[in-house]
């Protein structure tokens, strides 16, 4: 792995630890602090969980795979070599889409709290929060699964020119 990737991995690790601390802090103190029970903090938990999952996915399935840290399970001819390209592409774009939806939810939440402070709490009632988070986790599946499960689209790994990297490739049609 190139040297400049090590600080990036360290940053992702520290960021994930801080996100986990935020999640556990909110969950631990929400009974005693009514502010932590609000919709904003529910979205923060949603966003932090997604952020941690994306950091883990990218570090393991993208970076570790590319720089051959997974050679003990990922090698040419193995089942993972055939299955993982679709899983990697699907999971990566799925988590990114969920994270983007989380950004929109967070922005809408802050917008309504600033411009509609009197109706903010009733607007972001628990039923809406459950629906919004459910939609945020499910909606991207309708975009990602048709690509990942369509075997007319080609996704594959191949060894890089220098044999030091495992490259993830896709055909032109599946990346549009």
TrEMBL record:
GO terms for molecular function: transmembrane signaling receptor activity. Keywords: Membrane, Transmembrane, Transmembrane helix. The chain crosses the membrane at residues 6-27, 39-62, 130-149. One of its GO terms (biological process) is sensory perception of chemical stimulus. Gene3D superfamilies: Rhodopsin 7-helix transmembrane proteins (1.20.1070.10). It comes from the Eukaryota. Pfam families: Srg. Signal peptide: none annotated. Its main location: membrane. The keyword Aminoacyl-tRNA synthetase does not apply. The keyword Translocase does not apply. It is a multi-pass membrane protein. GO terms for cellular component: membrane. It is found in: Membrane. Residues 18-176 form the G-protein coupled receptors family 1 profile domain. InterPro entries: 7TM_GPCR_serpentine_rcpt_Srg (IPR000609), GPCR_Rhodpsn_7TM (IPR017452), Nematode_SR-like (IPR051119). Belongs to the nematode receptor-like protein srg family. This is Serpentine receptor class gamma. It comes from Steinernema glaseri.
